[in-house]
Specification:
The protein is of the alpha+beta class. Helices cover 24% and strands 27% of the residues. It has an 8-stranded antiparallel sheet.
Length: 313
Amino acid sequence: MQRIITLAGVLLIIQIGLVFYANTTGERYEAFSPGGTLFTFSPESVSSITFTDGNEQQLALTKENGSWQLAVKSALPADESSVKQLLEKLAGLKESLAVANSKEAARRFKVSKDLFERHVLVKQGNEIAADIYIGTSPGIRHVHARVAGQESIMSLPLSSFDLSPTVENWINKKMLHVKEEDLQRITVADYSLAKKDGKWLLNEVSENQKVNSEEIKQLVDKLTGLNIQTVLDEEDITGAVVDEPHLRYTLMLKNNEKREYTFTKPDEEYYVLRVSGLDPYFKIGKWIVDDIAAITKDKLLEPDPAKEENEGE
């Protein structure tokens, strides 16, 4: 009996010690109601999103006339699907068990007001709809996070990379796309194409020469579906303005709008593109431009059988 009483006393002391430790460190788990959402906003009602990283780099997205734009010098269009996906994800975030709830833990997990990986602020007009700090990652596609004004630190299904305050992360990379039905004429260095009765005709072609319809289709697809990587800062285009163009072509649209595309090559991985009538300089992948430049007039023509026969003799 004495041994049982002694053992019970030891267990009681251990329990008291554990309770004392939990209360003093603040590293305690809290009860909560599963299924509750962190925020109550509707994605359609959001008017602005601001991203800030730990180095104080910041980027804001604003909704103008129903469309999302990057709040930068040139008011560039944002990728609507990416913005929609983010807002739906934030609006659907569920409460989870707190992994910690102390100021010391907030700094350790990098979710404090002055030490964080990302800070995301969502607004509906002048009202704050969501204000959340993103920190370290406990696993793949999960981050430690803390809602502003609260102490609880949770693990949420988000990614710091997807919340980066960079233009490249949010810009609409299809902003230079052109509808083929709006395109009337293409002019490159040594040839031009004009549309007649819905078909593309290659100018200055003799009667016995036939056009390669498949090559022409590939060219038109490349020109009308030109994707950008991002826009470039002024320091990134030093020398590009005076460099000899690597490629230049002109598109004439239905409304007589003329767009001239000039590509210079200041880097081995990309080209710098300037489009007439637009302020920013665009970064275009090297392989995209090289593919366009490789399409010559000869490739747009079917091989001449007579010429091939003579060459084979």
